[in-house]
Amino acid sequence: MKLNRVFKAVAVASVLGLALTGCGGGGDSAASSGSDSFDKNAKTEITFAGWSLSSTPEFQTLADAFMAKYPNVKVNVKEYSADDYDKQLTADISSGSQPDVFPIKNLQKYYTYSQSGGLADLGDIANTYKSDKNIDISNYELDGKYYAMPYRQDSWVLFYNKDMMEKAGVATPDGTWTWDDYTKAAEELKTKLPAAGYDANSVYPIYQHNWQSVVQAFALAQTGYKPDTNFFKAKFDYMKPFYQRALKWQDEKLTIDWNTSNTTSVQYQAQFGTQKAAMMPMGTWYAATLVKQQKSGDADQFTWGIAPIPQNPDSKTKSDKPVTFGDPTGLAVSSKATGQQLAAAKEFVKFCAGEGGAEALAKIATTPAYFSDNVAKTYFSVDGMATDDLTKQAWQEHDTKPENPVGEGSDTIISLLKDAHSSIMTETSSVNDALAKATQNIKDQGLVTE
Predict the structure, then answer these.
(1) E strand or H helix that includes residue 78
(2) What is the pLDDT of residue 410?
């Protein structure tokens, strides 16, 4: 996807508190030229940002794998707050003290970061992967340039408890379900789970988490993904059928209601992991958590699997693969790095985006951006991972659309749609009224021109 919507320069500068350098991340500095070649024999140290290092092993895992291959390069992982990562990183970029390599959590902030003057141009790395069918780097293309490379690519799938469904006598997903099929199975579970011995007051057929993306991102992805003609035009009719289904699930008590989930901070991991729900749409990242929690005893022991996410029953466009959503997580390089430090930082990003980094992540059940047969074999060899054919298919085969459309005013639009989401799901406003209010508020912000 080419990011062809443009922020006003003053807006970007005000967000980061920086003067823009040229047209892109690195400006005209030597740091972004990529002219320095990597010398694997030179003693070099680079810094690498991460968050929640004790519970998020991917950062040290990537650093260790790279250092094993290049023992003369030391990668020092610098810890940031998971909750305030973007705020802290923005401050570091503003002061010119950003790490040599740092993650871009999702696409929501990518354009803003790319225009900050703090990111080196990674076009040389992009050229390495443009023709590689095992990785999709297109989400980071910005007017022909690249300021980040993906190293993770989670996609939303359907987790299901095989034991619960089989005990209740309800057919498990077969890979062809629409949301109507999903609803029918949930309604059947609602009747049959109590008869199978499950507590009707605490066990639900499904768990629908409270994030707005669980409705809105599916709606955008599965109705043709046309953000320039609907999302950025504040035309949200495409969301209505998805909200009507979500409200039906809630009203029929097929899931915990949104208000309870939100106000009591229900943890989706516990909801599925302790068998309080038989099915749950969630990102592929949850597989690693479930494997870990079943080993530690924080989750019950049961047989589970992953199926492709149910598809839009009203879709007029057919895809060869199940359509779902999920932003990549990328790595950027500081425009302040020069010489061997810059070369080592770029080599590290190149490694993380490729099969070497993917293999390292797969060993800890983390879904990488680079998919190959070897990587899949490594991922599914993790002790405790589901290994049935449908799980393997769902993990590897999908048409994943970005969760966050990138363009002028995206952050504001997402924020206003979050307000609409809570109004709809608490049923304090109708779907029509809440989306109409969001549209008007967006127009009042001057983000839509007729």
Answers:
(1) strand 73-80
(2) 82
Question: In Å, how far are 2, 34, 142 from 228, measured between CA atoms?
Answer: 12, 33, 16
**Residue 76, phi then psi, degrees to nearest 5:** -95, 115
Write the pLDDT tens digit of every residue in 169-208.
999 999 999 999 999 999 999 999 999 999 999 999 999 9
The Cα 214–Cα 216 span in angstroms is: 6
In the chain, the amino acid numbered 64 is D
- Please check whether residue 281 is in contact with residue 307, taking contact to mean a CB–CB distance below 8 angstroms: no
- pTM here is 0.88
Task: Please answer whether residues 208 and 281 qualify as being in contact, where contact means their C-beta atoms are separated by less than 8 angstroms.
Answer: yes
Give Cα separations from 33 to 29, 36, 100, 299 (angstroms).
7, 8, 15, 49
Q: Which amino acid is located at 218 in the chain?
A: F
Angle (CA) 197-203-204 rounded to 5° is 120
Q: Which residues of the chain have pLDDT under 50?
A: 1-35
Rounded distance, CA 324 to CA 217, Å? 8
Structure tokens at 356: 């070497």
Q: What is the identity of the amino acid at 268? A: Y
Structure tokens at 118: 């703090």
Q: CB–CB of 279/309 below 8 Å?
A: no
Nearest to 143 by CA among 406, 396, 341, 377: 406
List the one residue out of 28, 3, 229 whose CA is nearest residue 111.
3
Asked if residues 48 and 22 have their Cβ atoms less than 8 Å apart, the reply is: no
